[in-house]
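TA notes, week 10

Several of you asked for a full example with nothing omitted. So below is the full record: structure tokens for the whole chain, then the designed sequence directly under it. When grading your own attempts, check the secondary structure regions first.
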């Protein structure tokens, strides 16, 4: 009798294993929920929808975007870690939500980030830009001229970010420290919300990617690129480093999943995303908002996130960064 029970138990285990393997081979067999930690209309939201459109063309399954803004990604992360690790709930994260927030908001998190969230793959390479409105006849045309102007007018200039503690906020505070300027932080929910104030002259500068149409129309001017290399669409715009201000804090944008998601599913997701990121239509659509298609394995993405976290942790300490 005992042997019979053991045999039956083994058969059940094998059957369940076979079902799980079959489910993974068929993945995705239904729609995938994609949590976006920002309000609709921002660059992250637009990217999620671009990827979702192209993902459906390749797999036949939809990606349903669910916007969950708030607390620099804490709300989105909370929903992600409470989800089933089956590949049907993902989050589009970035350096703010998945590198800086676990540092600045660690005391507010009910879980250890590294034990609950796993990187899947990169979606885009995100150069960051400093733009200045032309609506108020802003004179500086280079980063050096901006610094000189800011020093002569301390506290007069302002910059936007999608929230206190975001990567944008930290990068500009780092720039303030490096350049010896006092440019005032004004938080918004998204770059899309800040753009009207930039165009009207109520805001002096921002670095985001949502305003590329305005750049092309000449409504705003680009002073520098906050990344290691120039943007191929704007080859004449120098990097900050080329202009003497090496604020090259890294930027990421990619998919994240709950820990426990089968590696086979993570690998398949990465393969599909890398495939669609090689498609001319995807490349063109991402370029319109300033982002460059990017390919990475899950392991490469994990290493990149870890490196980002270390880089920002060092700068948080260096600038004695505090939340507003």
């Amino acid at each position: 009798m005992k042997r019979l029970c053991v045999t039956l138990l083994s058969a059940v285990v094998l059957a369940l294993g076979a079902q799980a393997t079959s489910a993974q081979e068929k993945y995705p067999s239904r729609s995938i929920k994609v949590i976006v930690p920002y309000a609709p209309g921002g660059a992250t939201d637009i990217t999620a929808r671009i990827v979702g459109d192209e993902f459906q063309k390749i797999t036949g399954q939809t990606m349903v975007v669910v916007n969950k803004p708030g607390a620099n990604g804490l709300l989105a992360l909370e929903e992600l870690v409470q989800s089933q690790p089956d590949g049907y709930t993902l989050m589009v994260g970035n350096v703010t939500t998945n590198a800086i927030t676990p540092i600045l908001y660690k005391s507010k998190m009910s879980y250890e980030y590294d034990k609950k969230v796993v990187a899947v793959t990169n979606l885009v390479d995100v150069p960051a830009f400093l733009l200045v409105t032309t609506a108020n006849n802003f004179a500086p045309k280079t980063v050096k001229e901006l610094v000189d102007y800011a020093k002569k007018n301390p506290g007069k200039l302002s910059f936007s970010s999608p929230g206190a503690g975001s990567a944008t906020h930290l990068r500009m505070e780092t720039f303030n420290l490096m350049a010896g300027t006092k440019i005032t932080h004004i938080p918004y929910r998204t770059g899309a919300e800040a753009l009207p104030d930039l165009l009207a002259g109520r805001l002096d500068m921002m670095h985001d990617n949502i305003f590329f149409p305005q750049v092309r129309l000449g409504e705003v001017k680009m002073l520098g690129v906050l990344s290691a290399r120039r943007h191929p669409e704007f080859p004449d715009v120098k990097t900050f480093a080329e202009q003497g201000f090496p604020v090259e804090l890294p930027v990421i944008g990619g998919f994240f999943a709950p820990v426990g998601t089968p590696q086979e599913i993570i690998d398949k997701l990465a393969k599909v995303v890398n495939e669609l990121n090689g498609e001319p239509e995807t490349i063109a659509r991402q370029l319109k908002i300033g982002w460059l298609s990017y390919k990475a394995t899950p392991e490469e993405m994990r290493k990149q996130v870890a490196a980002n976290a270390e880089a920002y942790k060092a700068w948080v300490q260096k600038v004695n960064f505090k939340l507003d």
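Residues 144 and 243 are 7 Å apart (CA to CA). Use that as a sanity check on your answer.
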